[in-house]
Amino acid sequence: MPATRPLRADARRNRDRLLAVAVAAFARGGDVTMDAIAREAGVGPGTLYRHFPTREALVEAAYRSELEKLCTAAPELLATLPPDAALRAWMDLFLDYLLTKRHMADALRAVVASGGNPFARSHALLTEAIGTLLDAGVAAGTVRPDVDPADILAGLSGIGLATARSGRRDQAGRLLDLLMDGLWHRPQLR
Predict the structure, then answer these.
(1) pLDDT the model gives residue 131
(2) How many degrees, rounded to 5, is the angle at CA 63 between CA 130 and CA 51?
(3) Which of 12, 75, 91, 108 could disulfide-link 7, Cβ–Cβ 3.0 to 4.6 Å?
(4) What is the reported pTM?
């Protein structure tokens, strides 16, 4: 099998623009056509189908793109913020990701029905990103050393589900603050 060549810069920009438009279109819901996505992205249908030969391929790529953005945000946040602030900022990004995923639910169900599995590596990638943030917090002495990234992921998912209705973002923020309070490192006094 020949090696895949990297995309030219213009092809990469087209692909990225198609993914951004697709995420927004699937989030809006309704019957989103491939031609409408190509038109909104400012490319021809041939360009769209060259990158994504099926609707399912586009949906899966859009989902994976959002997941990748979220996971790569962890080290980027740590480069600019203290570990505890980076973790809290990442939690907000996670809720945005959940909202996008919820809005893409119908499109993602179609991918699963066609035999695809867009979620195959999601849990591992998310717990790895959370682990990176927690490790930095532990090293800085601000996060408890006994926290399992999978537990944080479960807590974040629960907060997302509990506050998914429109207009409850303020409650989600308060719940994230409570979760952060439980993560603070408090040395034992003897």
Answers:
(1) 98
(2) 130
(3) 12
(4) 0.83
